[in-house]
Amino acid sequence: MKILALSILFFSLLSSCAALYPVEDTTVRSVQIHGTIHKPYCGGAKPSPDVAAGYYESMTGIKYNIFAATEFSPDLPVFKEFTFDENGIINLSLTPGNYVFMRADKQLPMADFIKLNGELPNENYKLKDNACFAAWKNTVDIHLAVKNDTIIEFRQKAKCWVGTNSCMEYVGPPAP
Question: Which of 41, 51, 61, 125 is a good FRET partner for 95, with 20 to 30 A between their CA atoms?
C-alpha cells in the first residue's frame, strides 16, 4: 500500500513539474514557398488587358538565407540556405519557431553588395545614395512564424527596366 501511495505521489509531482516546464515542440513542419516576381508592362504597342496587367516570373535560381529569429540583426548566424528550383519553389523542413528570410547577396560586405547591385547599364540609369543600399541590404524579405505545415506565395514587385533593385532608377526616355 505504501508503494502504491508513493508511486501516485511520485507521478503527481512529475506531471506537475512537466506542466511548469513545457517540452519544446521539435516536430518538423513542412514549409513550401513559391516565389514569383511580378513584371509590369513597360510600354510599346497598345497592349491587350492581359499584357497590360504584367506577368509573373518564377524566382528560379535565386538564393536565400534563413535566420532563426523574429527580426534580422547582422550578427545572426545563417540557419539554412536554399535556392529556388526551376519552378520557383523551395521545400523546407523547419521546427516550429520564428524565422526571417533574406536574399543571400544581402549578407555580402556593403562594398560587394553595392558592386553587385549598383552597376549602371548605361546613362539612362542613376543610383540612389549608399543609405538606400544600406536600408535595402538590411530589409527582411519574409517574416515567418512556423506553427504548422505551411504553403506560402512569396511575390516581389519589379519596376520597369530596373527589376527589383530599389536603389536604381530609370531616367531615360519613356517607352514609345
Answer: 61
